[in-house]
Amino acid sequence: MDQTAAQAAPRSGWAHGALAALAGVVLALGHAPFDFPWSSLVALPALFTLWTMALDIRRAAWIGWCGGVGYFGLSLTWIVEPFLVDIARHGWMAPFALVLMAGGLALFWAAGFAVAGAARREGIFAALTLAAALTLAELARSTLLTGFPWALPAYLWVDTPVAQAAAHLGPHGLGFALLLTGFLLGLRRPAPILVALALFAGLWTHGIWRQATPVEVTGTVLRLVQPNAAQHLKWNREFMPEFYRRQLASTSAASDPAPDLVIWPATAVPFLLAERADLRADIAARLPHPEGRAHLVPLGEYLPLRQVFEVSGLAGFVGSFTPGPGAQRIALDGLPSFQPLICYEAIFPHEILRGADRPDWLMQITNDAWFGTRSGPYQHLAQAQMRAIEQGLPLARSANTGVSGMSDPLGRITASLARGEEGFVDARLPTPLPPTLYARSGDWPLMGALGLLLAALLIAPRHRR
Q1: Within 10 Å of residue 293's Cβ, how many Cβ atoms?
Q2: pLDDT (tens digit, 9 = 90+) per residue, 110-131?
Q3: Which residues contact 238 (CB under 8 A, 6 or more apart)?
Q4: What is the pLDDT of residues 411-462, one digit of tens each?
Q5: Structural domain spans, the chain
Q6: d(CA 58, CA 381)
Q7: 217-292+327-432 placed in CATH 3.40.50.2000
Q8: If we measure between CA atoms, which residue out of 132, 130, 111 comes closest to residue 120?
């Protein structure tokens, strides 16, 4: 590299990083509250083009990290909301939470872009390499240190027929197909563009065909209660009785037919069960509570790398619960069996029970009041819909402030109560579909194939014309 080029390289690196961050922001427009997935057909080609312009692995990692910062910076804006509930005490932490979360998750993208850059492939093979590497990076993000698979690329298309492919490919396999489509468009040549359009058209057509699958309903009626307890008032002693009264009123409201099961949201009662033996006995007589294991929220309920935090003296700022033996299926007399998902657990596709333990439906209880009013509750709902599509199972959702509702096994919402409304919705439980390919196989067969593909692209001889 001559002296002029050497001097220009840092300037172009910053410029390309800024463009990559902008492309990441545009990509995130597919998530709530914007819900414009078509932006990915612009953002992904731009990220691919910037990656091909990287002169070495370090610059490739820089492009990936900047793209990830833009993507996660916009799609995770809801993460500041919990710190604003008591803004006087915790508000100062809000910007740090967003910056550190976006920057930390972007490291996975940096690793994926760097690994793909090491292959030094061209043309369609370059698109395949980057799509495989970034998909595996997203799988790592979903599993390491208990994982955080929020805002996966597949979720951009949850409300379109494209999402139906998750029943066969899972969210990571669908993400790979969508990433590959966008990167092929970035080659800006007729043959790759035709391949990309054919791939996308196939996903869309398949989705329309699958959405025509007949879905029947059972005779089981579920009542989903939504007390609409604002988070800043939820633990206020003056409002506790009111929120509790709302749930009791919704539970006892007359309807025809009467509900077979009433579902309250997470943190529904404003007291500790250990301190109210009378209510604990009453609840236990009606709703069995087998011992289980919850997927704990990092930095909220579970402290990753606790030893490091203890040495630094920061462990006291974060509580850390101990998990139990694992997810369980619950069978109540006269009801189809179900798997309960407590709040955050619904974002983990690989934790739904399979095989002989497969439930007939999924139940999610959550308190999305923590997530604000714009993006968080709707992104959480979209991920719950994806669990229904992936497994071919209906999913009933009771959320404190909404959105509460029933999703059929194709992920379509058949009954709901809007965010911010108080009351309940009665919904007939749809019948489950036969186990999907993803329900039978999980992530690892496809991810293993992508790993082998990436390894082959990394070690195979490079031919140059």
Answers
A1: 14
A2: 999 999 999 989 999 999 999 9
A3: none
A4: 999 999 999 999 999 999 999 999 999 999 999 998 999 999 999 999 987 7
A5: 7-212+443-459, 217-292+327-432
A6: 37
A7: no
A8: 130
